[in-house]
Design goal:
Pfam families: MvaI_BcnI
Keywords: Endonuclease, Hydrolase, Nuclease
Organism: Croceicoccus esteveae
Strand order of the largest sheet: 6-5-10-9-1-12-11
Structural class: alpha+beta
GO molecular function, one term: endonuclease activity
CATH class of the largest domain: Alpha Beta
InterPro entries: MvaI_BcnI, MvaI_BcnI_cat
CATH architecture of the largest domain: 2-Layer Sandwich
Radius of gyration: 24 Å
């Protein structure tokens, strides 16, 4: 067992934690009443979880509509890791709030003496690993680790205290990120590159190398895990024309989910394109395109006849009224062309958006090189409700670029690209806190 906070951080890091948080437990935070994780959905951006699904049990219907998501959770002690297979998050959209439950069930090594009681001063620690599992550790209020924790101030994200990976480095993750971005800014022009799985840097010639080059300098290997890039921060570069105005060349792509319903899914992309697409406007032969901007404030698109609507969300209260709500692309004849379910969109939004750093870049060639700017935008604290609010207002929009190539042949080629974007100037509406920082 950990005798100090430093030992606990070392223990969590030894078991794969790349981010560490703590939650001071209130008397109601126990196995009977669940552990409260905040009065919004922001905890979903902190705690990795599985697919979100409706809880249609009798108990759930009696309480109120709610959804669940499993968590790959392990308690840690001196004997190692112990899986708590029934751990999950519970979403109550009508409050709204998120709670954690099931963390004792099925795990004999779980700290039941701490998590079943209502004692003041208890602390629950979360170690988030790169593979999306969570390592938990709980202490009572009189434990030396708890006393050491409350004796110092820590940065907060929602209800969570954000802790460093080691007390040997007094800088918090935000300061460490800024120090790295400052170092990269001072490098001036950097050859376009991409970090390989073995950690070596390889030249990268394609024009989309700005993000890869920045990640390579940060030591971030591209992977498929639902994990932010650097110490809990998602780091995104964006191209600019100069470092005076910092005006972005293009909108920010937030996520790229495929539709989960509508003709796009029931009849297939080919049928969708032939019904709602249009001939390539630049004259490319035998090609059908589907593009344009679709948001909740615009009328039907002139070329496709489609418009975007939102169901299951109350813009006035800012709450979800139906967990089965959707973003809906609909025709002027009320045909449902494509839909995106709230549950599916939540899963995409929760991947990396708790903390984000937006870094401007310049590009030149030959050879392809990038230079990263002296001012970065840091954005913190968001949740899916903020995304829905911005979408309802038309600030976030659907901006597809889908193509059907060789459309008249026996083997047409479909190129999918569904993306949700926002103007760089509107980015801050998606976060509770934002700050421009000069390097």
């Amino acid at each position: 067992m950990a005798g100090s906070l430093a030992q606990l951080l070392d223990l969590l890091r030894h078991h794969g934690a790349t981010r560490i948080y703590a939650k001071r437990l209130a008397p109601n935070d126990n196995s009977k009443n669940q552990v409260y994780l905040g009065g919004d959905f922001s905890a979903l951006n902190i705690i990795p979880h599985g697919e979100i699904y409706s809880d249609d049990t009798e108990v759930a219907r009696a309480v109120r509509d709610r959804a669940k998501a499993s968590v790959d959770f392990y308690w840690v002690n001196g004997d190692g890791l112990h899986h708590a297979p029934n751990t999950g998050l519970i979403l109550y959209p009508k409050y709204p709030e998120v709670r954690m439950s099931g963390f004792l069930l099925g795990c004999k090594a779980a700290p039941s003496d701490i998590m079943r009681v209502r004692d003041e001063g208890r602390v629950l620690f979360f170690g988030i690993t790169r593979t999306g599992s969570v390592v938990g550790y709980a202490v009572s209020g009189d434990d030396p680790v708890a006393r050491e924790l409350v004796a110092r101030e820590w940065p907060m994200i929602g209800v969570f205290l954000e802790l460093p990976l080691s007390l040997d480095d007094a800088r918090d993750p935000r300061e460490q990120l800024l120090d790295e971005l400052r170092r990269i800014y001072r490098l001036n022009w950097i050859a376009s590159q991409k970090l390989a799985a073995d950690g070596t840097k390889a030249p990268y010639a394609a024009r989309n190398g700005g993000g890869y080059t920045l990640e390579a300098e940060l030591g971030v290997t591209p992977n498929g895990y639902a994990e932010p890039d650097y110490l809990g921060w998602e780091v995104k570069q964006y191209g600019v024309r100069d470092f005076l105005s910092f005006k972005a060349k293009s909108p920010v792509t937030l996520m790229t989910p495929e539709p989960t319903g509508g003709i796009y899914r029931t009849e297939g992309v080919d049928a969708f394109m032939r019904r709602f697409g249009y001939p390539d406007q630049s004259g490319k032969a035998d090609r059908i395109n589907f593009g344009g901007r679709y948001d909740c404030q615009r009328k039907h698109h002139l070329l496709t006849g489609l418009r975007m609507t939102l169901t299951g969300y109350d813009e006035i209260t800012g709450k979800i009224t139906d967990l089965d709500g959707e973003l809906v692309l609909i025709s002027d004849r009320d045909e449902v062309a494509a839909t995106w379910s709230f549950k599916g969109m939540m899963a995409h939004w929760n991947r990396k958006h708790a903390q984000a750093a937006y870094v401007p870049s310049l590009f030149r060639t030959p050879p392809p090189e990038y230079c990263y700017g002296p001012e970065v935008l840091l954005c913190e604290e968001t949740d899916f409700l903020m995304f829905l609010q911005s979408f309802a207002r038309g600030q976030v929009y659907y901006d597809p670029a889908i193509k059907l190539v060789n459309a008249s042949t026996m083997t047409p080629e479909i190129k999918r690209r569904s993306q949700f974007r926002v103007s760089h100037n509107d980015l801050t509406v998606l976060y509770r806190r934002s700050e421009k920082v000069s390097l």
